[in-house]
Each structure stands twice: as C-alpha cells, then as structure tokens.
Amino acid sequence: MMKILLINPPIEDFYQTEIRQEPLGLEYLAAVLQQQSHQVKILDALASGKKRVIPLPPQ
Q: In the structure, how many helices (H) and strands (E) does the chain have?
C-alpha cells in the first residue's frame, strides 16, 4: 500500500471564469487507486481560497 497525494494546483484564471468545477479527474483516479488498496488524499488548491474565491452561480 502506498500513501498518495493528488494535487489540483492553483492556476491564474486569465478569463476570470465564474464557474468552477471539482477536480473530477483526480476523484476518478483516487477511486481507482483506493480500489487497489492505496491510501489517497486530494488537495484542491483552487478550493482552498488562498488567492481569491469565485462564487458559484445561483441555481
């Protein structure tokens, strides 16, 4: 078993996109790794709010 950290790095949003999505690709990868008995964590630096927060659009 390995301990694995998957990172979604912060990026500069030149287009100032209002809609942010969760890192679905990393979540799929984490699920496959967990099925193979690895210990997996995801660090979503975009969601950490270190630079700025872009609110989700109203539903």
A: 1, 2
Domain ranges of the chain: 1-11+21-48
Q: Which two tokens stand for residue 19?
A: 């809609």
Contact (Cβ atoms closer than 8 angstroms) between residue 37 and residue 3: no
Q: Which two tokens stand for residue 11?
A: 């990026």
Task: Give per-residue pLDDT as tens, 13-43.
Answer: 666 777 778 889 999 999 999 999 999 999 8
Burial 12-36 (b: 16+ CB within 10 A, else e): eeeeeeeeeeebeebeeebeeeeee
